[in-house]
Every structure is written in structure tokens, then in C-alpha cells.
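User: Can you fold this complex?
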Amino acid sequence: MTIEDEVRSMQKFRMFHHVEASKLKLLAMVSDRITFQPGEVIYEQGAASDAVYIVLEGQFTVSLRTAAAGVINFAQHVRGAILGEAGVLCDQDRMVTITAETPVVALRIDRDIFLQLLKESPPFNFAVMRELGRQIMDLNNICAQLVQQLPEGAAAADAGRNISEPQHAH
Amino acid sequence: MSVNFFRYVWMYSRREQLIVLFYVAASLPFYWWSLDVPKRIVNEGIQGSVFENGVSQARLFAYNLSLPDYLGGGSYVISDGLLLAQLPYLFALSLVFLVLTLINGWFKYVINIRKGVLGERMLRRLRFDLFGLVMRFRPEDIRTTKPAEVTSMIKDEVEPIGGFFGEAFITPAFLGTQALTAMAFILVQNMWLGTLAIALILVQGLVIPHLRREQIRLGRERQIESRILAGRIGEMIEAAPALHNFGVTGHSSAEIGHRLGTLFDIRLRLYRRKFAVKYLNNLLAQLTPFVFYTLGGYLALKGQLDIGQLVAVIAAYRDLPTPIKELIDWDQQRADVTVKYEQVVSQFSKDTLLPKETIEPPPAVAADAPITVVGLRVVNGRGLVQLDRMSVAMDRPGRIALAGPAGGGRDVLAKVIGRQVTDYQGSVAIDGREIAGMSDREASALLLYVSSEPFIMSGSIRDNLTLALRRATPRPDERAELSAKQRYWLEEARKTDNPLVSPDADWIDYAAIGASSPAEVDAAVSNALRIVRGYDEIFRVGMSSRLGDDTPPDTAERLLAARPAMIERFKERGLLQYVEAFEPDTFNTSASIGENLLYGVAVGNRFSPENMAADPFMRSIIAAEALTAPLTAIGIKMVETVADVFQDLAPDNPLRERYSFIDNAEIEAVWPEVRSAWNRGQRRHLSAQVRDKLIGYALMYVEPRHRLNLIDDRLVARILRARASFRQFLPASDAKDVEFYDEGRLMPAASIRDNLIFGRVRYGKAHMRDKLLAAIAEVLNEHGLESFVVSKGLDQEVGPGGRLISVQQRVTVQLARAMLRRPDILILDDALSSFTPSEGHMILENIMDAMEGRTVIVTQSGEDDLSSFDTVLKFEGAKFTGLERRESARIPSDAVASEPATASA
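Assistant: Here's the predicted assembly.
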């Protein structure tokens, strides 16, 4: 697979619909293509956010280790997703663990390169923003459904409360 | 240091000056004779005045010593002399003249040499004295000193002073007596001519210095102006990144341009003056002979003066202006140099200097003596109160936090205790000893201040770390046999009061870290690095540093043994597939085309990646295997891609990093030609230069990294053939330029990591590099090579001001340096601010553990977690607002707990 192929597969993604091919080519040129075997961890909860991944092929699971309830596997995704951008943008450690479900092919973009790319290319910047916006809308939707399922009088959710496992000093 | 130049010179060079003066005195009789002999040559030898009246032989070299009448008037014959005919008489006199000339020349030579040596010695002393003074500046004064100005003063401005040291007493003595001798000689020959000469000289001596006064003033102005220029240039170079950042280089250039203009103007006026004075000087000098010829000739014709006398007078006079002129020069130089000297010395005299360093060990300070602060108040130069009056006692040992907002009193107190601010009111003392009054030796034995601005000197990381230990002051070994050169070296140092111990001697204070050999110092260094969490970093640096030629044989053996062990370990861990080993008959896809061609490591520049394509031998191999066209095509494709994708990006945009070997400027030069050739479909018409470039790019191509799908099996086969023929046909004389990969041999030119992996880590795997490195570290450890790798890492050069290493590495070095010393009191003034909070916290915890039983003083903001401290001093702005003692402390000391806090104002 060459850069040209990568550009072609990215063009099919919804988030990159409005990004011109030359910018996608730039994106491909400054990233590394990485493959993960099924079961292989793409990144680990609590690790430093050193890169953003764009999944070209394959399925993966998102899971969260919590202090109380053990590991929660809460979502499965397929190709076309951008991974780890929130952590990079907010300068936070990884919030969740991502594991490959099937063989995954992804483009790995170093943190600094990703930030530089956002500065350099408004269409790309816009694509990432739109993707984040869409995620927020999806989450709102999910939240509303979850609240509906809650029994009467349950404690309200709080963004400040962290249910993930406490960090170990490393 | 004496402010009077002559006193300074006399104080330190009396003996030598007197010796030279003795030489001067000894030279005078010969000088007189050398003036006298020409007269006798003309009168007696040529005109034959002693051969008149039929005398055919005259006596030469007959010397009688006649006593004056009041001593009895006796006469003693010293030598009867020789009886000679006129011609031998002439020759003998001429020979005497020759000998006298030689003797005079010899005197001049000796005097000049002695003078020069004397001047150089004094210059060395002066420079060393000035440097010593700067080193004793108070920290406040140091901060307002511009390094470039001081450098220019110590280096350049004192240079002319140095030349004058030797002249200070000797020149007036030498030239003055010479001129007097010549004057006396002229006077003895003829009263009139002598008086005339004196009159002319007086005019010279009076008018010219007057004219030169302005010249001196201009000279001083020039000195000050160029010193400021040096200072500003130095400042601007340091600030260059900021200037670029704000795009204000134009303004600073304008300023420098203006300063250069001022300097030019001063110099121009100086030149005009100088040559006007010179012109006048020459005129007066030329006028005198005119007078001598006319008047002297008239007197000679009248018979009142003989021709010999006239010739001698003119000869004497010809010699006269030189000493006179030089005397005037000397006087001007004197004025100039004394002004310069006073100027420079005044720059170095501060009202208060730090106390002089002593060699005696400082008095011991009780380990548990508290730091007592009484009525401390700090006001800065503009009268702003930086720390309001406060009194407190800090128990030792203890973990003390100075908490408050940054920029307030907490920083000032830290700086006072750390001796960065010595200009304060009140008292800060430990065991009754005032902190500001301690000598370096005393203070550094007790406390250590670490700020957020790491101070790194050029040298290796090891040099920078052991800097903290270089305080043993080795004593010169008296019994050691010294070579003549060493003795001379030592003697000269002694003569100028320079330090007698060589900087290359072993200055490491082994006792301080409980070590006895350099190897143990490395262990202590590693330990210190572990405390500040910098060990892994140094290990990594060591791994990627060049193996070098000087690997000890047993280490080399272990390295070779580690290679198969490494592969075994990779296999165990399932990591083997992520490494692509170098194999002679296989194309290594993770390496560049060039690396595959060379199949080895370039030693020196000839086959380095950027030069390889231009090398004739390499090119002949490429051509022989019909690789020129395909490589050019690859190069074109790369240039095309880069030109296409990166066209809008600035040349230094980090996104270009992966293709950074293709320079933007080069693309602009190469691309149009490539495109037009492409359009015409005639690739052969590329110029040789462009073709070189394109092939050069192609040799850097790595398929999985650049992913342009440019390598196929046919190309691989050709490259492998080229690899074989390159090795086969490489002339034996060039073999030293390449180290071919060989499983059984180490490659000194490659990094330790490459030497161990013996291959390339494959692309396309995210975390494997880390895992591989971890496995390598393990194997290295098992083979006892860890200390070797760390030692290599410590050899890494840091560059001037530490520019070659990252900011965090600099801070790490600075902290590790402090941990190497383990002072009784460690002051961390915002020292961890360049780390992330969690990292900083972990480092602080480690440091506090390592400093168990000693005192750590840390500046903290109010929000920081203060639970690990046992004393917290709170500040608000410049005010000290209270002391809080925490019961979690290991040593509860309630007795004194409340008392100092109440004492605070």
C-alpha cells in the first residue's frame, strides 16, 4: 500500500469529505503506517498522549479500567475513526485503552506533527473539529438514553468525578 | 588593585625593571663611542689629520687613565696601542665602528626582549587580576555586567597596556639617556649647533603633545564606544531568536549601524589628527638638517668647525629625532595607557567584593544549627521593597517550603539564603556566621542553590556533572621530577601570581562522595542521575552515541557476545520479526537505498549519505549496474511529490522533517529543470549537477518510510549486484572510508545500538521500538555493559551553554550535579518548573529521600501539595505572613516551634 492508496481510502471517510487530496497526501506523508494484530493494544489508558491514529482498516475495542467496576468495554468501532486526538489536544494522558479486534492498519501521526498540521491546514482543522462535534452530539444522544434508563433518584453524573483506576506512579 | 598605573607596574616588576635599566646604563658608553668613531674616521682616517707633517704611522688604541689634578694628576698607561699606517688605520677604525654597531644592536636586542617578556608577564598578571576581580563581584553586580564588555576589556583593551608595561620606565630611561648622550655629543662638538638643536627639539616637545591632547581624548572615546558596541553585539546575538520572533532585526541592525557610524566618525577624526601631527613632526625633523647644512657648512668654510665634526654632528642629529620622537610617542602612550588602565580598573572596582578565597578549610558549622533570619529586608536598586522585614528561625535538618505566589518574597528569601542576593539589611546567619560574609569555599561546603536556569558549560555531560566535585585543589607534588618545560611553566606562573596547579590535574574531591577512583565517580554520577530521574535518558543517549575506536578489548568482546544474546532475547519475546537484520545477500527494506548499496557504515565524509552520490567511485558502480536511470527516476518522483505537497509550507516547517534532506532552496533550483526535461520527454538532458542531486535523494529513499512505491524486484536485484561489486572493486587505499557490516566485528563508526541490533527496526510497528530498547537494555545489563553505555552517554557534548541538549536535560544535569554534592542545605528555587507537575513531584520526593537528615528548602506555590514538608513559611507578595509547623515531621521540636514565628514582624 502506498501513499496514493492511503489517500484514496481516507477520501472515503466522512470526516475527510471536504479535505482536498493534496492535504490528505501531506497527512499521509508525515505519518507512519502501522499495523496491529488482533488483540494488540493500540494505546494504553494512562500512557502519555504521544500520537494520533487514523484507522484505515480493521475493528477495535475501546475499554476503560475503573477503580470500582473492573474493565468496561464500552464501544466498538470500525475504520474511518480518528483516535487519541482529544488527549493530544487537551494535553491529557490516554483516557481509555484501545485494542485491535481484527488486524488494524492505521496512520500514526506524532503529537507535534498533528498539532502543526492543524495549524497548517484549515480544511484538516475543520475536519477534526467536525469530527469532535459529531462525537459530542453522539455522546449527548447516548447520555440522554442512559439517563432514561436510570432508576428514579439515582445520583447525577458529574464530569469532575473520575471513575477510572487511580494512576500508578511510573 | 592599585589605581595608579605606574605604582602597579613598579610594585610587581621592580626587579626586572632595574635589571633592564642596568642594561640601558651599560649600553651608553658604547653609544657614545659609536658617535665618536665616525668623526675620527673622517678626520683622522680619511683626511689624515694625524698623518700630517710627514708622520707615516699613528698610534691607535692607546689609552691613558689620567687622574684629575685634585687627585694628584697622575697618569697610568693602560695600553700602548698599535702603530699603524694610514690605510690600516682607516680599516682598524672602520672595524671598531662595525664592532660598536654590533654591540649597540645587541644591547637593543637584549633590552627589547627583556622589555617584551616583562610586558607579557605583567599583562598576564593584569588579566588574571581582572578576572579574579570579576569572580569576586557580588551576584547583584554580576547580573548587571555584560559578559561581552568584560571579555573585550580583559582580552582586547588591556592589550596595548601590556605592550606599555615594559616601556613604562625603561623607554624614557633608554631613549632619554640616548638623546641626552647625543645632545651632549653635539654640544661638545659645537656650542652653537647644539643650542640650535636643543631649541628645535624643545619646539617639537612642546607643540606636538599639545596637538596630541585631542587625539588622546578621541582615543578614549573610541575605546568606550567600541566596548559598548561589543556589549551590544553580544547581547543581540544572545537575543537573536527573540529578535527574529518579533521581526525586529531591522531595528537592531539600525542601532548597530548607527554605532558603527559613530565609531567611524571618531576614527576618522582620529586619523586626521594623527596624520596632521605626523606631518608637522616630519617637517620639523627635516628642517633641522637644513639648518645644520647651511649653518654648519658656513662654520666649516669659515674654519670654525672641521668637516669630521660636521659629519659627526649630522650623524648624531640624524639619530637624535628618533629617540626624541619616540619619547614624545612614549609620553602620548603614557597618557593614553594610564587613562585606559584607570578606565578599565575603575570598571572592576566595586565598593563591595566577595571575600578572597582562602585555602584553609572553613570552620565547621554545627549540623543542627538553625538558619536564623533577623530583621531581613531586601530593597532592590530602585528602592522597591522585595522582601519586607522578617525574622524567623529554620531548624535543621528539615524540609522547608517557602510557599507563596511566584515573584514574591519567597523567591527573594531563597535567593538570600542561596547567596544570590547579598545586598540586604538585617542578618541571615547559620551558627553565628553571616551568609553574605562567607567565602565561596565556606558557603559551598554548607549550602547549594539551584535555580530554574541551569548553568551548563561547554564540555561533556560528565564534565558538567563533576564540575560540582572539582574543588579538591590538588597540591603541587614537590618531590615529583619536573621536566624543563614544566619547571618553566611553574616558574612563569609563580612570577605572575597565577595558580600553580594545572587545570588538568585531578581536582575531583573524591572524599566528598566517598569514592577513591574515577570509576567510582561514575557510579556516584549514575546514582545522582537516578535520584533526579535522568538515568534512563543518559542511557538512551549512550545507546545512540558512536561506539568509537577506543573501546577496551574486553568490552568489545562482551559487545560481540551480546549480539547473539540479543537475537536470542528478541526470539524469546517474539520481537525478532520487528528487526530486519543486515544480511549480505538480502535487500534490507527498512534501510535506505544508499545504505543497501554501501552495506556498511561510512567512516568520515566520503561515503556519508549526503556525499555518497557525488563520489566518483560510487557513481561508477551505479553506472556499471545500470542504476543511473532508475535512481534518477526515483529522485524525480521524490522531488515531484515534495514540490507538490509541501509547496505552501515554510522551508523550516516541522512537517517537512521526513524529507528534510531535500532542501527547499534546492527544489526551487532543481524543479523547473526537471519539469521542462520531463515535458520534453528527454530525461537525458538533465545537467550533471541536477542528476547528482536527484541520485542523492534517491539514495536516501526508504520504502516503508516514504511509501511512494518506487522499489521493485528488478531494482533490488541491481542494487544487490552493485553492493557486491562495490565491495569487490573498492580500491584497497579507500577501504578505510567504509566499515562493511560483518557479524563478527564491531563497527566503531556506528552507534552502540546499531552495533547491537545489527540491523534496522522495521517500520510500521508503534511500540516495538520501546520494547526492543528495553530488551537491549536488559541484555546489556546481563553482559555488564550498562556502565559502559552510561559512560558513553556521559561523554556526550553539551555544546556552548548546553545548546546541544534539551532544556529538560539541562535541568536534569543541574539537579544531578547538586545531588552529587549532597550539601547540608539544598535550596531549590523554582528548580523543577520545567518538568510536568507529576514528574517534578516525583523528582522532588526522590531528592528529599536522598537528602534525609539534611535540609531542603523549596519554593512552592500556595496550591502545591505541601504535605511532605515539616516547615512551611508563607509569603504574600513581599510579606512574610507566618510559619507553620507540621506534626507529620519526623523530629517534633515544639519547644522552638512558636517562638520564631511570633518574632516576625
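The mean pLDDT of chain A is 83. The interface with chain B takes residues 1-4, 6, 22, 25-26, 28-30, 32-36, 41-42, 51, 108, 112-113, 116-117, 120, 169 of chain A (CB under 8 Å).
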